Amino acid sequence: MNKNGFSTLEAIASILIISLVLFSSITILINNRVQANATANRLIAYQVGQNIRDNITHNTTYSDAFAWLNNNETKTISSDNCAYDSVIVSCDDFSYVVNNISFADLTEITFYQPSTEDQYYHVIHYLIVISYMDSRTIELWGWIYE
């Protein structure tokens, strides 16, 4: 600092430092907000998945699911094909709307052909995948058993 005040270089350096601090703070705040929204949407997606899993588990018998699979390795059900290919999953399971978010196009349910051991214990595994917040997904496993 000279007798007349700050030099031009000192003023530019201090403005640069203040700008960096403000930019970093704003970036952190925006990232925190995005993460908070993602967490809220994850909780909603998880609740929707639990509802779908409960509906399938309580409304589907092992015999019906095993006959429906008909020795296919896997079958994937979505809102696009639930009316045509699904006897054991209701299309209503794809109609959840929470906070103006429709989960119809964001949900897929995959049923896996039971292994020999699964057939012995009368168990069919299925996986519910729900997308939320761009490319983020959650997976919930379910079982149909006697």
Q: How much strand content do the residues show? A: 15-25%
Name the poorly predicted regions: none
How many structural domains in the coordinates? Answer: 1
Name the average pLDDT.
Answer: 90
Oligomeric assembly: single chain
Q: Total number of helical segments?
A: 4
Order of helices and strands: HHEHEEEHEE
Question: Going across the major beta sheet, what is the strand order?
Answer: 1-4-5-6
Cα end-to-end separation: 84 Å
Estimate percent helicity.
Answer: 40-55%
Radius of gyration: 26 Å
Which overall shape is indicated by the principal axes computed on the Cα atoms?
rod-shaped
Q: What does the model show?
A:
- The structure is a single chain.
- With 146 residues, the chain is α+β, with helices and mostly antiparallel strands.
- It has one domain.
- It has four helices and six strands; from the N terminus they run ααβαβββαββ.
- The chain has a four-stranded antiparallel beta sheet. Strands 2-3 form a two-stranded antiparallel ribbon.
- A hairpin with a 3-residue loop joins β5 and β6 (136-145).
- The radius of gyration is 26 Å and the shape is rod-shaped.
- The mean pLDDT is 90.
List keywords for this structure.
4-stranded antiparallel β-sheet; rod-shaped; 146 residues; 4 helices
Short characterization:
The chain is an alpha+beta fold and 146 residues long.
List the helices and strands and how they pair.
Elements: H1 8-59, H2 62-69, E1 74-78, H3 82-85, E2 97-98, E3 101-102, E4 107-112, H4 116-121, E5 123-132, E6 136-145
Antiparallel strand pairs: 1-4, 2-3, 4-5, 5-6
